[in-house]
Amino acid sequence: MPILTTSALYDRYSTDLIATQPVTRDIPFSIDTMLQSNNPTTNYVSNVALNIGKNNAAAQISRAWGKPDFSTIPTGATFISSIFHPTPIGDFTSNVRTMRMHRCLRAVVGAQATWNIWSTGNNWGTAGCSNSSNDYDGAVELGNMSVPAAPTLNVPMSMTVLATEFQKLFDGTYTNNGIVLFMDTQIDDLTQYASQDNTTPAYRPYFTVTYMPR
Predict the structure, then answer these.
(1) Does domain 23-212 have CATH number 2.60.120?
(2) 182 pLDDT above the threshold of 70
(3) Nearest by Cα to 71 from 28, 34, 111
(4) 118, exposed or middle or buried, with CB in 10 Å at 0-12, 13-18, 19+?
(5) Could you give the C-alpha distances from 133 to 52, 102, 104, 170, in angstroms and in order?
(6) Above 80 in pLDDT, residue 93?
(7) SS3 letters for 150-185?
């Protein structure tokens, strides 16, 4: 049996230690869009903004949909924590409200989805991805955050996301149909956030995921 030198033992210990350290990575949406009640047949996949809530100066309710891009996280990773960071770029709210995140149940086609449909020829159960039984998983909330009546613009916000559930979108337990974001009241509470197509990369939405490699 070979005898390992002190140096070899240290190298092996160091390698094992490094391999088991948590890793933190920022991941974007691969695609996102918003759904607007006042333009129910318009697709906004290339828009630079995502409106979420009800405009305090117009009859307009908006929700946002996005698909997390897990491609940079290695197979077998175990999520420890996950935080969503949207950046407000426009204020059309008069109230403090709660934004909520849920898993989408429809096989949304981002370049086709509108207030009325999740893909060409396929209607939402309730317009705007609003049905908590067949449009989104109303039984499990992935996360929520309070949005002030006067949010600070151009500064990312933070929403803690349930890591055990978010992991299921990554590992295939759930089909990654994306997530839907909406305000819980939808009365005079619209904030405009940068989308993944925003011309300022620092404003684009992203998730910070900390995980243990396999």
Answers:
(1) yes
(2) yes
(3) 28
(4) buried
(5) 21, 11, 10, 22
(6) yes
(7) CCCCCCCCCEEECHHHHHHHHHCCCCCCCEEEEECC
Which two structure tokens, joined as six digits, stand for 19?
């391999």
The DSSP element (H or E) to which 37 belongs, if any, is none
- Show the DSSP H helices in the chain as ranges: 6-19, 163-171
Widest distance between CA atoms in the chain: 79
Q: Is the pTM of this model over 0.85?
A: yes
Residue-wise pLDDT for 3-23, tens only, equals 545 454 444 444 454 558 999
- Structure tokens that stand for 86 in this block: 């949207």
Enumerate the domain spans of the chain: 23-212
Which single residue is written with the structure tokens 């974001």?
181
Q: CA neighbours within 13 Å on the CB side: how many for 109?
A: 9
Residue 155 confidence (pLDDT): 98
Separation between Cα atoms, residue 35 and residue 178, nearest integer Å: 14
Q: What is the token pair recorded at 148?
A: 């002030």
Q: 3-class DSSP state for residue 105? A: coil
Q: Which long-range contacts (CB under 8 A, 24 or more apart) does 93-96 make?
A: 93/53, 93/56, 93/147, 93/149, 93/150, 93/151, 93/188, 93/189, 93/190, 93/191, 94/56, 94/149, 94/188, 94/189, 95/149, 95/185, 95/187, 95/188, 95/189, 96/146, 96/147, 96/148, 96/149
